[in-house]
What does this fold into?
Amino acid sequence: MKTFLYRGSYTSEAWAKLVQDPKDLADVLTPSIESLGGKVVACYLSVIDNDAVGFVQFPDDISATSWVMLIRAQEYIKSALILPLISTEEGKKSMEKARTMIPPSPSSG
It folds into this structure.
């Protein structure tokens, strides 16, 4: 499973409904994520820039992209994005591979 960072913001109307009928946002997101074979790793609230921040996993990029498209289509969502993450082990492998590459030259092409 691939891990993604999720960041999202809700409309003022959505917050008004949540204040009247409080919900755990992880519980709200979980069914849509699981319907695509994914899972919620962690979900947090933030009062600075994004309302919700979390880590989610999906079996592939298509599932992750489909989920964020579904979320963005909801009228109570102001913004939503996902960023693919790699493990530190994958990062090390990327560094090793980068070390063997030939950098692009501004004069070529």
